[in-house]
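Q: what sequence does this backbone want?
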């Protein structure tokens, strides 16, 4: 055993930050405000659903597998226009930074695989 295992963690490396430092988008802030107005406790974790659309099933399944490795639960269904909608569900405390991080994750996958991010939704949590 070398000495680095005593001081530095050997496995896992760095985890990505839970929140983004980039400014949030207006649509995300509007949804957070709507949750607040409806009485949701924004200091508690919410099951947040992000919606991503792909043209074919294979690409959508590939995106779902990647998101499941990142801790999301994914559901896949066909769209009325013939595409495939992937719903990625993750528990997070809905802060502007956390929602911006979610948007960045989804847009990163759609940029790589050729889909489109359609936004997020969360139920009211009391």
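A:
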């Amino acid at each position: 055993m070398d000495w680095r295992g005593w001081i530095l963690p050997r496995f896992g490396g760095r985890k990505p930050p839970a929140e983004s430092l980039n400014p949030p988008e207006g649509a995300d802030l509007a949804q957070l405000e709507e949750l607040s107005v409806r009485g949701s406790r924004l200091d508690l974790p919410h099951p947040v659903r992000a919606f991503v659309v792909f043209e074919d099933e294979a690409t959508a399944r590939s995106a779902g597998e990647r998101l499941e490795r990142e801790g999301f639960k994914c559901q896949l269904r066909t769209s009325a226009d013939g595409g495939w909608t992937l719903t990625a569900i993750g528990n997070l405390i809905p802060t502007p930074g956390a929602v911006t991080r979610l948007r960045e994750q989804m847009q990163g996958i759609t940029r790589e695989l050729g889909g489109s991010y359609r936004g997020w939704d969360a139920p009211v949590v009391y």
